[in-house]
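TICKET: design request
STATUS: open
ATTACHED STRUCTURE:
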């Protein structure tokens, strides 16, 4: 089992429109469930199945820089812990779009969050993060808006403004 603590540096955005060629990029089905979410929403323990990989992650902090500790799980471990996430889950299809030095992670949500599409970009340094200029197809930045964190989406559903936006735009 692997253990790799590190600083996660990322920015998150809603999108204005899907890029025409997004389906040509590698993708995975992602299931995320939350075992524990602290009341301040700044710390949590998450389970994730992404393709054939299973993990348990502890994250601390909010915004663009957070501490992240990830442990690899076996499928059996994941399955036994998954039951503890009932009512706090997110399903999405994740596309990996290479763009210059960065990989844009495009998440298309399913189930109760159907129609929500977000992107996130992870960076090696805070300087790279701050210098990043989003492509034109990116929309409003939601890095600091906790309502768009996956743990909030899993427990509270779509923010009201997002559901109104999806209705106007038309869900996928």
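STATUS: resolved
RESOLUTION: sequence designed for all positions
ATTACHED SEQUENCE:
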């Amino acid at each position: 089992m692997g253990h790799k603590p590190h600083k996660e540096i990322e920015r998150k955005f809603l999108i204005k429109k899907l890029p025409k060629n997004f389906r040509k990029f590698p993708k995975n089905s992602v299931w995320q469930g939350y075992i524990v979410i602290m009341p301040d929403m700044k710390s949590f323990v998450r389970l994730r199945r992404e393709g054939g990989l299973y993990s348990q992650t502890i994250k601390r902090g909010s915004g663009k820089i957070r501490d992240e500790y990830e442990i690899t799980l076996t499928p059996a471990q994941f399955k036994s812990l998954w039951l503890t996430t009932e009512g706090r889950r997110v399903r999405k299809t994740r596309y990996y779009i290479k763009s210059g030095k960065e990989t844009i992670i495009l998440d298309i949500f399913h189930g109760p969050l159907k129609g929500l599409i977000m992107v996130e970009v992870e960076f090696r340094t805070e300087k790279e993060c701050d210098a990043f200029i989003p492509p034109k197809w990116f929309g409003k930045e939601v890095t600091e808006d906790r309502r768009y964190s996956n743990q909030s989406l899993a427990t509270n559903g779509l923010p009201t403004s997002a559901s109104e936006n999806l209705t106007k735009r038309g869900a996928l």
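CLOSING REMARK: The mean pLDDT is 90. The domain at 6-169 is CATH 2.40.320.10 (Hypothetical Protein Pfu-838710-001).
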